[in-house]
Every structure is written in structure tokens, then in C-alpha cells.
Amino acid sequence: MNSEWSLDIFYTSYQDPKFTEDFKRYDESIVKIKEYVSKLSNIDKEEALVTILGLLEEHIIIESNLGSYIALRQSTNTSDTETVSNMSVLEKKSTELSKEMAMIDKYIASVENLDELIEKNEKLKGYSFLLKTTKENAKYFLSDDVEEVIAKMNLSAGSAWGNLQEYLTSTLEVDYNGEKTTLSGIRNLAYDNDANVRKEAYYAELAGYDKIKDSVAFAINNIKKQVNTISDLRGYESPLHMTLRQARMSKETLDAMIIAMKEYFPKFQEYLKRKAELLGHKNGLPWYDLFALLGENNRKFTTEEAKDYLINHFKGFADDLAEMVEEAFDNSWIDFFPHKGKVGGAFCANLPHLKQSRVLSNFEGSLSDVVTLAHELGHAYHGLNIQDHLPLNYEYSMPVAETASTFNETVIMTAAIEEAKGKDKMVLIESQLQDVTQIICDIYSRYLFESDTSIYVVM
Ligand SMILES: [Zn+2]
């Protein structure tokens, strides 16, 4: 089993002639779309819609190959200058069609007998949902020129503020015990078995934030300002209204979830108070002990053991999932281990047009790392289920995105708890409670922050 993923399915390197060829094809596809859109008014509507969909399908597949290859390389080597420069070229090119994309959306919305055309044309039928939702959203479109300016300006506005926040937090040097560490390094110490380490690391983390807090607050404020401005310009009732439409979720569904969360807050408070008592605290749980483990779980997995563990637990429940997990481990879909220059955390990139996915993890062998792999492979399973969809239907909304992954995680965690005995069982249940607390309480606080449309003043 390889410990690093293979990206050869795209290109063998930036020098691969196929890479240069695809960049050329990408430029040609931009020109083709521009030309076609410029003469739309003279073409029969059914024919125009079919041709546009065909051109866009071709375009997003080339873009996905180039974009995925560069972005995946960047995630395992963030400081590679060739990657950074290729990414900036692609980003710039990808905004070149923003005006035409806006024109296409408006064109679709202007087709009066859209339902009728969809009914009689197979190609259009396949994109019925896309075409109908585009028409429904037409009232939120701005003029083509404004759409173009927003997309192009975003590179030096919201997106640039986001890059600044990422840069500052990923390069921050935190002073700890006379040495320098990273933000993710110090955050990991929140899980340390030694109470003093957790406490000191927490104060070191806060002191670290002091160095960047004004700049990060500036970045976040301006991202938020941009969201407020755009939602206002487009005529949404609020940024939340805009987000809900993008997530294809009704306000009633969101409210029901928030009410359920609030109803259960007392249970979480009880749990946190009990945790405080078990850790010997008198007046509730201090922040620095939020992630303390109530015992040690020393079970270690090799990648081979992680593979067997996942396959055994998924087999019987969903054989196609177990088979896909085996393929992911055997065919270099996964980049396992942390190293300098590799991004933290974990993610999965679906490549449905290639009938594969790629998973990045920072595997160190703990059960929680195995659970993370289960989560990411849940996203890959989602990819498996959309791979036969039409290319312009590959996209899915955030609430849908986290379904298979959270489900997988629960399957593995439940199995681990069932197998454990005595104190080990309690440690695992507590660690699951910790995760759920973070989802419910932490996400609720972010929701409050996001719902507040005022701007926070710093300094
Ligand atoms: Zn996820």
C-alpha cells in the first residue's frame, strides 16, 4: 500500500504534455463559449440550450482535471512555487467566463416554454432540475457586467481576505515552553493526558492569537461585509436567506434544527458539569479542559489495520462501500501521513468523471484517525453514487454533503464502543459526547455570529 496518493490519473507532472495540452483546450473552450453566447439571440432555443449544456460539460471537465491536479498538489506541498503560479493562472482564467455565465443563466430564465422543451428533449430532461432552479433564481441575478465585476473583483476582495486569514493562521508561530510551534501543534495539546500541558498550551494559544487577532478580525469583517453587500444587491432578505437558498434548505427546517439544539442544551450542560467534576474542577469546566480525555485510549492502528477494520465494519452493511474502501486503500487514493508543508485536517475530493476520489488525512494511528478516514471515505462513497450523473449535476449542497460521511463515522464509532470494555468504553463514549458537544454548541455560537449582520470593531 502506498502512503501517498497518486495523481497520475491526471498528469504525471507539470511537464506532462497532456497538462499543457489541457491548458490550451481550456483556453479554446473559453473562446468557444464566448463566441456561442454572443450569437444566442439568432438560434433556436431548444438547439441553443442543448449546445450550451454540451459546451459547459466539456468546459467543467477540463477545469476539474486542471483544478483538482493543482489543488491536490498544493495541499501536500503548500509552498511549491510552480503550484502557486499555476493556481493563480487557472484562477484568473476561471473568471473569464463570469459575464457569459451570467448571460447563460439569464438566457435560460428567459425561455418561456422551458418546461415544454424539457419534456420533449432527452438532453434537457437530464438537466431538468438545473434548468428549472436557474429559472427560479433569476430574480437574484444582477446585470452581466456587474456579475463579471463581482467575480473578478472577488479575487482581490473576499477571496484575498480569506487567503490572508489562512496565511496568518497557518504561519503563526506560537511560543510554548521556550520553543516555537504552529497553531495546529498547540491545538493538539488540548487533548494531552497531562492537565498542566493542556492549561499552559491553552494560554500559549491565546497569547499566540494576540499577534494576529487584529488582522484576522479585519479579514473576517471584510468577508462578512462583502457577503452583506452582495446579498443586499441581489435582493435577498438577508445573508441567511441567501445561504439557505444555496443550501436548498427551508427556513422551517433550519428553525426546527435550532429548536431541537436549544431543547437539548441542558443535557450538554449536565454532561459538561459532570466532566468538570470527574476532572476535579469545582465551578464548571474551564475552556482548557474541554477536550481532555477521561482516560487513555492507546489503541494504535497501522494503515493496513485501519483498512481491515473499516472493511470489516462496512461489509454486510453496504458491500459496495466496503469494496470502494478497499479500492481506495489499494489504488493510492489516500495521502495518509502528516509532513511539513502539508495542510492540516482531512478532506475528500470527489472526481466523479474519473470514477474515483482522493482523500487527504494526517494519520497518526489513533482510533480517531481511523474514524476520520471513515468520514472522508463517506464523502468518497457519495462520489461513487453520483459518478453516473451528468457532469453539470455533480454538485451537491452542504447539508447533503455531510450525510454519508457523518453516517460512516457513526457506524465505526458505534462499533468501537460496542467492542470496548470497562473504562475504555467510557473513554470512547465521552470522546463521542465531546464531538457532539462541538457540533451542537460550537456550531450554534457560529450561527449566532453569522446571523448578526453588524460589523465587529477591533482595536
Ligand atoms: Zn465532511
Helix content: 55-70%
> Which CATH C-level class of the largest domain is it?
Mainly Alpha
Strand content: under 5%
Query: Which segments are poorly predicted (pLDDT under 50) over 5 or more consecutive residues?
Result: none
Rg calculated over all Cα atoms: 24 Å
What does the main sheet amount to? Answer: 3 strands, mixed
List the ions, cofactors and other small molecules found in this model: zinc ion
In the CATH hierarchy, what is the architecture of the largest domain at level 2?
Answer: Up-down Bundle
Determine the CATH topology of the largest domain.
Butyryl-CoA Dehydrogenase, subunit A, domain 3
Coarse morphology: globular
Q: What's the N-to-C terminus distance?
A: 52 Å
What is the helix/strand order? Answer: HHHHHHHHHEEHHHHHHEEEHHH
Count the domains: 3
Number of strands: 5
Question: By helix and strand content, what is the structural category?
Answer: mainly alpha
| Mean residue pLDDT | 93
Description:
- With 459 residues, the chain is mainly alpha-helical.
- It has three domains: 17-154, Up-down Bundle (Butyryl-CoA Dehydrogenase, subunit A, domain 3); 163-289, no CATH class; 303-419, no CATH class.
- Helices cover 67% and strands 4% of the residues.
- It is built from 18 helices and five strands.
- A hairpin with a 4-residue loop joins strand 4 (347-351) and strand 5 (356-360).
- Helix 2 (45-76) packs antiparallel against helix 3 (81-94).
- It starts with 16 loop residues before the first helix and ends in an 8-residue tail after the last helix.
- Bound molecules: zinc ion.
- The site of zinc ion (ZN) has 4 residues, from helix 16 and helix 17.
